[in-house]
Amino acid sequence: MKHKLMIAVVVAAMLVAGTVAVAAAQELRIVGSWNSLTLFKNFEQPFWSEVVPEEMGIKTSVTSLGQVNLRGAAVFRQMDMGVFDVVHTVIDYVVEDSPALAGLDLPALALDLELARKVVDAYIPVLDEYLAKDFGIKLLSVTPYPAQILFSRDRISSLSDLRGKKIRASGWTTAEFINAVGATGVTLSFSEVPQAMQRGVVDGAVTGSLSGYSAGWGEVSNYIYPLPIGGWDYVIGTISLKTWERFTPEQQTKLQQLIKDRLETPAWEVTARETVEGIECLGGGECPHGRPGNLEILALSEADKARSNQILLENVLPAWAGKVPPEVVQKWNATIGEVVGLQAK
């Protein structure tokens, strides 16, 4: 009798523990990306504050990167400490702590969004592996900002005209690209750029077309060069593995499907449109986001496309490969390298 009673007590304790674990996963604290941009306003915020509570019965609280004011990978460390459960952040912000992640978004790697999607799909297993290894988190989504193009005070007819100029880079791999053309990559926060451009601290700067328009970069620039020098500035959605493992398999499957259908896929579709809209708004075309600017859109030459590919292969890829273990290079070659027809050494 005592033996049966002990078994019953143990079983009951396990059931209670399981109930507590599931309940603990039922209130999520989310940090979204930048709250001034479309990705947060139209997708991340409504997804976590409306879709997840309605579809999964889970309570949520949502804030943003700007509101928590944590730089780089600090927001991931806070997640590991249990302060947050879900974080969306720009992948460039955390590559210093996990260089394998930088392989996703190298300068001029994907000149159009269709190829960018193939690159992401190929590299997802590697991202997931190193996010877990380096931060103890799981990948939920990858969404792009509009193409990261060049805003310039001076007219350029090719990449060669950047020689000797100071250009704000959107990440260290972008700085490698800029340095390779004879310019100097400068580190500045996004908000510092307009004043720096106005004062001549920098001659140009790289960011997304619509982001630059919204932030007033068009008022301190005269030209835009639509080569994605800074890639696509992907935002990764992640969840703490501790939180993830408290969900049932059914909850995990449902959340992943909801993210794909209601956040990731529509966000990719909007990025394609916003890349074009940003350039149109800056160049004086039809602008659904406000008053159009009067910047000149410089022609992108086939020669510069070919040169950007050469710089990627001869300068950027070797610099990145030198920061990661050989097995990461092998994984890049077997995934992204196969998609784009390049091999890192």
TrEMBL record:
Coiled coil: none annotated. The keyword Transport applies. The keyword 4Fe-4S does not apply. Residues 1-23 form the signal peptide. It comes from the Bacteria. One of its GO terms (biological process) is transmembrane transport. Keywords: Signal, Transport. Belongs to the bacterial solute-binding protein 7 family. This is TRAP transporter substrate-binding protein.
